[in-house]
Design a protein that fits this description.
Number of strands: 4
Structural class: alpha+beta
Number of domains: 2
Shape: elongated
Helix content: 25-40%
Largest sheet: 2 strands, antiparallel
CATH architecture of the largest domain: Alpha-Beta Complex
CATH superfamily of the largest domain: Aspartate Aminotransferase, domain 1
CATH class of the largest domain: Alpha Beta
Distance between the termini: 17 Å
Strand content: 5-15%
Length: about 170
């Protein structure tokens, strides 16, 4: 959920557990958000490290260990900014529009392609492949020439670049 959380409204009741790293949409790395359905708390296996035992963490008000105060501070600033911008509904519309524009450009380019079925495409991380399989290095080179850097994300395992859409 690292890429999805705070990108749009989300019905958290659909999930038993949500784990999201902050580094995508909330703040700096080193902070994470865990949302656990109440009835799932208290069932950790014997030997589970205390920091990963969500009951122990909940019993301590998420203060079982030294909190990453800088990360919390930055997250607080992001939450205030989000609220001032109109909240998650507004963010969702912005992100949907940005993703639609990018996917449309890819799909209509005649050179680039996206290997993900439209119904499963991320609003925040877009796989971008050069027209013919195996031409990923050309894609990275072209991207760098156009000022796009760090495209060699997790999609490289399928010969694609990954672009993250940001705010």
């Amino acid at each position: 959920m690292s890429s999805t959380i705070l990108s749009r409204p989300l019905d958290v009741s659909r999930f038993g557990l949500i784990y999201a790293g902050a580094q995508k949409n909330i703040g700096p790395s080193g902070l994470c958000v865990v949302i656990v359905r109440e009835e799932l708390i208290g069932h950790a296996r014997a030997g589970t490290p205390t920091v990963l035992d969500y009951k122990a963490m909940a019993d301590e008000g998420s203060m079982l260990n030294t909190p990453p105060t800088f990360g919390w501070y930055v997250a607080g600033l992001v939450f205030k900014w989000l609220k001032a911008e109109g909240g998650l509904k507004v963010m969702g519309e912005r992100n949907r529009r940005k993703a639609e524009l990018l996917y449309q450009a890819i799909d209509e380019s005649g050179f680039y392609r996206n290997p993900v079925e439209p119904v499963s495409r991320s609003w925040m991380n877009v796989a971008l492949c050069a027209g013919a399989p195996g031409t990923g290095q050309d894609l990275y080179c072209r991207g760098r020439q156009g000022g796009l850097v760090n495209l060699e994300g997790t999609a490289r395992s399928v010969g694609c670049a990954r672009a993250s859409i940001t705010r």
